[in-house]
Amino acid sequence: MLKQKSGGGESWARVCDKCRAAACAVYCRADSAYLCAGCDARVHAANHLASRHERVRVCEECERAPAALLCKADAASLCTACDADIHSANPLARRHQRVPVLPFSGCLPGPPSRACSR
Ligand SMILES: [Zn+2]
Ligand SMILES: [Zn+2]
Ligand SMILES: [Zn+2]
Ligand SMILES: [Zn+2]
């Protein structure tokens, strides 16, 4: 789900540091790099050491910062800035339950895929 905003590249999602062709999906702390799903899989499947890198999802809202919180009501991973933004918007949103986003290693979590052996 890419945000197609025309004019002013400022709000454009951060691009993958590796291929610079796709929007980033995860942030790898060990590499200090934002990677798209494809590059993430390639880079971190390359060797055993790389597969242990801890990564976090990128904020679904701004797609420019690592997500820090997962909102259960919205089923969205948000960075601290977007979390504050969205959840201060109205009293109902303020009641949303959020849990810290945990880093993961190995395969990208999400819909089960056959590419993932674990
Ligand atoms: Zn990439
Ligand atoms: Zn890495
Ligand atoms: Zn954000
Ligand atoms: Zn929420």
TrEMBL record:
Keywords: Metal-binding, Zinc, Zinc-finger. Pfam families: zf-B_box (PF00643). Residues 11-58, 54-101 form the B box-type domain. It comes from the Eukaryota. This is B box-type domain-containing protein. The lineage of its organism: Eukaryota, Viridiplantae, Streptophyta, Embryophyta, Tracheophyta.
